[in-house]
Amino acid sequence: MxxxxxxxxxxLLLASGYAGARSVLEPAGxxxxxxxxxxxxxxxxxxxxxLGVVGxxxxxxxxxxxxxxxxxxxxxxxxxxxxxxxxxxxALLAYALWLMPGLRPFAQASSAALRIEITGRQFWWEVVYHxxxxxxxxxxxxxxxxxxxxxxxxxxxxxxxxxxxxxxxGGKMDMIPGRTNRLSLMATKPGIFRGPCTEYCGTSHALxxxxxxxxxxxxxxxxxxxxxxxxxxAGASGGALFLRxxxxxxxxxxxxxxxxxxxxDLSHVGSRATVAAGILPNTEDAVARFIARPDLIKxxxxxxxxxxxxxxxxxxxAAWLRGLQ
Amino acid sequence: MxxxxxxIETLWTLFTAPVVWVAHFLVCYIGAAIYCAKPELVGLxxxxxxxxxxxxxxxxxxxxxxxxxxAWRQWGFGTDDPPHDDPTRRDRTLFxxxxxxxxxxxxxxxxxxxxMPALFLTECIR
Lengths: 325, 126
What we know:
The complex is a heterodimer of chains A (325) and B (126). Chain A is an alpha+beta fold and 325 residues long. Chain A has helices at 2-5, 9-19, 30-63, 70-103, 217-227, 238-244, 284-292, 294-297, 311-323, and strands at residues 114-121, 124-131, 137-140, 142-146, 150-157, 162-164, 173-175, 181-186, 191-196, 209-215, 274-275, 280-281. Chain A folds into 3 domains: 2-22 and 230-323, Immunoglobulin-like (Sandwich), CATH 2.60.40.420; 31-103; 114-227, Immunoglobulin-like. Chain B is 71% helix and 0% strand. In chain B, helix 1 (12-37) runs parallel beside helix 4 (89-115) and helix 3 packs antiparallel against helix 4 (89-115). Chain B is elongated. Classes of the chains: A alpha+beta (325), B mainly alpha (126).
């Protein structure tokens, strides 16, 4: 059983490799593009000013050490110390403010074709897709978006303050209990990106992440349609063990009697890139280790340990979950 | 009635510009917050809120400019250079005038920065 208990650093590294790009400076979304441009404008402006100040310092220290007349010194202070910074700050503020309407493009509530409702929980993400047509589709710890289409995200929290961020796609937004925050994202390139929780939310805050998958619109639509119906393997034998050991009182699996709403929806858990909210690769071994001792892998997690089950049962459940594609 | 106030010596004139800045800040932020929380209560469009902020800004900048002009006068229109640190009545007056002038400059820029979002934001949510 020892193999289930060990949380090896190697598996964490492997998981982070699975989660894909995470830099705000490699934008793959319209909003992130603007943020990256803002960053480069600020950086180059700052660099020019820094070079100017250091150049002036070197000039006066090394090459021109004579005293300035008081009048010209005062005018350097007035122009270089008051007028120039005020005008520069004014221009940078105007530029940043001018960008803001573009980062919040929705004029009316739900004007986007697809709305995704994401609720932060200690320490995972509840995800519900609300397409303009058809019923809502529930998922967890993974967000998929169609490339080239603007998606509206409704961000909530069920317990404490979390913060939602997919660096290559757009800016950061807090998830605050009792409030609904809205964020708009438009992916411009397909890819898998990592989204970490960016507001300290408890013991396993650093272990709370998700993967965001930007897909071609056609592939996205067929994926969403497949998510709306139970997975093919839902009726297989591991499912009976899942129900017999009470997993269904917390987890929902479409097409079975598992109707719990406390933990993540597992209807299609096998199709996700990662498990345990972005920290483990989605392999049978990792799933089995998590079932046995979630408290070791994710301290503070509300899921109890199931290491009293026979290892074969745990492995059968893990295999069944992996099959829920 | 005089249009420009007589020169008086009191510390209170020092605070005029920052107080105008505070008042302008509160009018803009509280006004926009009330409108965006209860637009039906106010019954105006967001353009009216922006126009209100513009009007408040013009008034605030005019008051600060007046305070700056009075300070400049108190400073003797720049005839003497700082630091005005002799223990004399004259230096005290000049020092206060100069400090008031600098505070007016700061408040002037701050009022512009406070009002700038209204130039770009066209709705409550964006």
